[in-house]
C-alpha cells in the first residue's frame, strides 16, 4: 500500500506541473489592444481609416487565435498525457498488486502443502503405530492361545493318565471278580444242571400236553381259516366279476364315444370332400357352360332371342361362380337362402340384399358374393337387363 501511495503522489505532482505550465503559457499571451504610434493629435473633422493598421490588427488577432489554439492543443495533449500516465501507473500498480497477491497465494499454497505433508507424515506415523500395536496385540493373543492350548493338552494328558490308572484298577477288579464269578458259576451250573434235568422232565410232560392242545387248536384254526378263505375267495370273485363288468361297460362306452368321434370325423371329412368335389364339378360345369355358350353364340351374326334355357344356364354360371368362394359347414346342410343381387352391365356387383331364409346361410352367402366381386354376364342385351337385378337361390352342398 505504501508503494502504491507513492506512485499516486508522483502522478499528482506531475499533473500539477503540467497544469502550471499551461497556466504560464496562457498568462504569457498579450490580450491588450495594439499600441498606436505616438503622433500629434490634430482635430480633423473627417474620420479616416488606416488600411494597414486594420490589416495589422487582423493579423495580430489571427496570431492570437492561433496561439490560443496551440495553447489549447498543448493543454489537451498535456491532459491526455497526464491521464495516460495516470492510467499506466494505475495499471502498473494493479499488476504489481496482482503479482504480490499471486506471490502471497503461492506462499499460502506452499505453506498449505507443507502442512499437508506434515499431516500425512503424522498420519503415516499413527498408522505405523497402530499397525505395530495390532501386531503386538496379535502376538499377545497368539501367546495366550498357545498357553491355553498347552494347559488344555496338559489337562488332557493328566486326564488320560488318570483314566489309564482307573482302567488298570478296573481290569484287576474285573479279574478278581471273574475268578469269584467263575467259582460261583461252577456251583450255580451244578445246581442249574440238576434243576434243568428236573425242569426238562417237567417240560417234556408239559410239551406233550401242549402239543396235544396245539394240535387241537391248529385243527380248529385250520378249519376256521379254510372257511374264511372260502368266504374271501367268494367275495373276491364277486368283486372281480363286478370290476370286470364295470370295465367292460367303460370299454363299451369308450368304444361308443370313439366310434361316434370317428363317425363325426368321417362325416366332416366326407362333407369337406363333397364340398371340394362339388366345387370342382361346379367349376367344370361353369367351364362347360361357358364353352357351350361361346359355341352357341360365336357363329351367329345377330343375338337370338332369350330363352328359358339361356336364363337357366346363366343362373347356373352365376351360382357356380359364387360357390367357388363360398365356405359352408355341416350345420348348413338342408338349409337355403334367396338373396337379391344388383349388378352393372359388365357384371360388377353393386348391391347385395339381406336375403331370406336361414340367417347363417344368408350371411355366409353374402360374404361369398362379396368375395366374387364380378359375376359372369350373358352377351344377350335382354338377358343382361334381367340379370342386373336378380334373386339367386343358394343351397349349401
UniProtKB/TrEMBL annotation:
<feature type="compositionally biased region" description="Low complexity">
    <location>
        <begin position="108"/>
        <end position="117"/>
    </location>
</feature>
<dbReference type="Pfam" id="PF06519">
    <property type="entry name" value="TolA"/>
</dbReference>
<dbReference type="GO" id="GO:0043213">
    <property type="term" value="P:bacteriocin transport"/>
</dbReference>
<dbReference type="InterPro" id="IPR014161">
    <property type="entry name" value="Tol-Pal_TolA"/>
</dbReference>
<dbReference type="GO" id="GO:0016020">
    <property type="term" value="C:membrane"/>
</dbReference>
<keyword id="KW-0812">Transmembrane</keyword>
<feature type="region of interest" description="Disordered">
    <location>
        <begin position="67"/>
        <end position="117"/>
    </location>
</feature>
<keyword id="KW-0472">Membrane</keyword>
<feature type="compositionally biased region" description="Basic and acidic residues">
    <location>
        <begin position="171"/>
        <end position="255"/>
    </location>
</feature>
<protein>
    <submittedName>
        <fullName>Protein TolA</fullName>
    </submittedName>
</protein>
<keyword id="KW-1133">Transmembrane helix</keyword>
<feature type="transmembrane region" description="Helical">
    <location>
        <begin position="12"/>
        <end position="33"/>
    </location>
</feature>
<dbReference type="GO" id="GO:0019534">
    <property type="term" value="F:toxin transmembrane transporter activity"/>
</dbReference>
<feature type="compositionally biased region" description="Basic and acidic residues">
    <location>
        <begin position="154"/>
        <end position="163"/>
    </location>
</feature>
<feature type="region of interest" description="Disordered">
    <location>
        <begin position="154"/>
        <end position="255"/>
    </location>
</feature>
